[in-house]
Amino acid sequence: MTTGLISGEQPPEYPGPADAFPAQQRQAQDGRPDPHAPERTRSSVITARAAASFEPVGRSVATARSFVRDTLQGWGFADVIDDAVVLTSELVTNAVVHAGTAADVVCLRSTEGVRIEVADQYPERELPLQSAALTMTSPDQEGGRGLQLCAALATRWGVDYTTTRKQVWFQLDLPDRAVGTRSAGPALPVEMLPAADGRVRVAVVQIDRYGAVTSWNEDAEDLFGYPAASVTGKPLTDLAAWPHTPGTGTGIAEALRLSRWEGSYGIRDAVGRVVPVYASHLRVRDPQGEPSTVCLLVRNEERAVLQSPSRGASSGDTAGHDGRDADPFEVFIGSPAPDDLDGLLQRTVERARDMLDADAAFLLLATDDETELEVRASTGLPSARQRFARVPVEAGPGRYGSARMPAVHDDLTAAPGAIPLLNGTGMRSVVTVPLKVEGRLTGSLGVAAESPGRYSNEEALRLQFAADRIALAVESARLGELERLRRGSLSFLVEASDLLAGTLDRDQTLALMAQMTVPTLATWCAVYTINDPSSEPYLSYVLHEDEDRIDGLKALLSKISPPDPVPTPGARVWTAPFEAAHEAALRTSMRSLGLGEPTTLSSGIGPTLATASAVGGETVVLPLVARNRVIGMLTLGKPTDEHFRQESLELAEDLSRRAALALDNARLYSERMAISQSLQRSLLPPELPRIDGVEVEVIYQAAGEGNEVGGDFYDIFPIRDGAYGFAIGDVCGTGPNAAAVTGLARHALRLLAREGLSGPAVLQRLNSAILDEGERSRFLTLLYGELWPQEDGSALLKVVCAGHPLPLRLRQDGTVEPAAEPQPLLGVMDDLELYEETRVLDPGDVLLCVTDGITERREGMRMLGDDGLADVLTTCTGLTAGAVAARVLRAVERFASEPPSDDMAILAMRVPGLHAD
């Protein structure tokens, strides 16, 4: 469909219709006024124009009806909407169904009324009926009904031809009425007037062009409990409980910008309850030309106060507002396009209620397995009976259950539980009819009244006829919505899987689980975790879409027992939060009345009314099952009077399975990391000894994510009085096997050195121990030395460098030289010929020992190497051992942009001399 809308002054005249039937085949006169038209029409001025084109497919008829209805509603022509929609529906049907061509629809607003033109590309001049046949002979007759309706309903009408197209047009004049009145209804007897329980409160709310409240009268304060000062300046949509305006395809924000609008929606009052209201919106302009909207709001059950008389017939009377006999099923013709399911369903229940002069109406759609019916739209019922509440399909003795056949209940008090949806609503009589497509139950439509005996089989047949006319459109729209939901669900699950797979941190996984469900699937979420089968569920994470309510919600949930960890798949209802919220609300109410507290309340539960309202809706629990074990529960909740839809629960169940596996993977990874870190700590000395006359500094950095045990190690330990051993080594590889060799080497070095063996003897016996490990053995590079501080401030050094990077000595004059010679590494050959080298560290000298993660640091083809390390050490003259180690580490990190790929260990020892720096 393509649409063009032009507002403002147009050419001052348009071709008027003829008054006699023979003139219907006259050609259009190039925009000049028809000389046969009455003077009133020839002087009319077009003030606005809206146009749309519709493809030659069946769904275009419903789309055209919606286009005309919305256009005339925006222009404020509510008095002629129903007639215009009926005529447009028939004429567009002729064009796109019977003629098989596209249809062009033009709406023209004038000072007198509205003119609608429907054109097709089938220029056949023969009319289907003669003038004598303009009387409808049968209501089931199809041929020529569009022109018959034009003759019956339109003020004027006609047919214009060109060589390529045929255009049927009609004009509807606004009814004459007294100045200042929008519409008028008949005078009714007192007993037929709508009853009011008390003083009717009409809330008057003014909204500025941005949707913010600028005026809030006393009746609005009484209805909703908000003082004017607390809502002035806030958007009205912040108080709206129903996100879409029932009866239209637009939201409340869009409805506020229409010229004229009537309909129902919900306002959340100061204590969190949803107050269904019937609203009348009128858009006005102030003296400065700024637009604003005046809203008149009454309780939904008092809708007759604001409702236009033309919306429905009186009780027991099917006459329309213009005196003609109204088609009782005509109220469903103006439904929105089938792809607007919510608008279609809500408009259907409102018109069903008007059609049978009922107090309430509801429409339920069947779930995929047809075992339950889900409330999708209702009017005149408490808000708790609104969307997505589910009731079972009652099983009957025959082929169909009672929900699959029309049913009339004269008095529900005589059959309690017959209609579970109406329990506790005060409704007495009800008629329900099924919605079926090709014999399959797709839903149920019902209307109810507070008085008994209101409906008979005749009303049931009328409602069934109406239901049959909309069943296919509803099912088509439902399938379209279901397809969109499934595509969205797949996209949601793919994104959720990517996010969950992107982290192995337990806390982050919990946060992701909650953030993916709120507010997409639920208003609030709580995650319980179970560490082991013998432990109780623990409340690990709580999230609410309103951050101000998180603390109160957490306090409430922490005071009640967690849900049972049942492994049965699927969502199950959990009533404990609702019951706790109800008790909290009762306590608060009794305190405010000075009545104390009820004795049945549990002590310690003290959430605010806002928190109670936040958890007062449906709450469900889904088990988190991974590897055949329940590791937690995912709890989802809605605020007061709201329910989950079945598709949302199925999507949440899919998400819970993925989240459970991700959470268990995070748990396993955390356990593995904890084990690795504990093992790594056990392979390093707990603390460095304090050596008189020698500064010692060690820096150790393991590569990777911390879940692998590194192969580098170091140790400094006392051998005997005045002598200290030190070692720095690197075992080939990482992981458990490397850790086994590392542990063997470190502990063997201490044990053998303290036995009084020389350095070569210690390393030879260590080499034999490594080879004895067999397949688990790893080769090992090791620098081992013994240090004796001297009385003159120097230090005696004996070292053996077995395949390890050579230690570097920094003298006070800035020269750098190796402090040992290379010898064979360990773990390769049985017989090793090793020897010990003796060096003296003078006061101010530094001995630097590193692993190959330092010297083999790479950037592309470049490598730091021994020479690069020596250059860095040259710049460290006069620095302490800690400063030397830190400068070397910074130089290594800056050498390449990529993070280190190997473990790095730095051991720096400095002899400060007799007079410490």
Note down, in words, how this protein is organized.
It is a single chain. α9 packs parallel to α14. The radius of gyration is 42 Å and the shape is elongated. Strands 1-2-3-4-6-5 form a six-stranded antiparallel sheet, with helices on one face. Strands 14-13-12-17-16-15 form a six-stranded antiparallel sheet. Strands 24, 25, 26, 27, 30 and 31 form a six-stranded mixed sheet that branches. By secondary structure, the chain is of the alpha+beta class.
Give the topology, please:
Layout: E1 2-7, H1 39-42, E2 46-54, H2 59-75, H3 81-98, E3 103-110, E4 113-120, H4 145-153, E5 156-161, E6 166-173, E7 203-207, E8 213-216, H5 218-224, H6 228-231, H7 252-255, E9 260-268, E10 274-285, E11 291-299, H8 341-355, E12 360-366, E13 372-379, E14 390-392, E15 407-409, E16 429-437, E17 440-449, H9 457-501, H10 506-517, E18 524-529, E19 538-544, H11 550-558, E20 572-573, H12 576-592, H13 609-614, E21 619-626, E22 629-637, H14 646-682, E23 695-701, E24 712-720, E25 723-731, H15 736-753, H16 759-771, E26 780-789, E27 795-802, E28 808-810, E29 816-818, E30 822-823, E31 837-841, E32 846-850, H17 852-855, E33 858-859, E34 862-863, H18 865-874, H19 881-895, E35 904-910
Parallel strand pairs: 27-30
Antiparallel strand pairs: 1-2, 2-3, 3-4, 4-6, 5-6, 7-8, 7-11, 9-10, 10-11, 12-13, 12-17, 13-14, 15-16, 16-17, 18-19, 18-22, 20-21, 21-22, 23-35, 24-25, 25-26, 26-27, 27-31, 28-29, 28-32, 32-35, 33-34
Helix pairs in contact: 2-3, 3-4, 8-9, 9-14, 10-14, 15-16
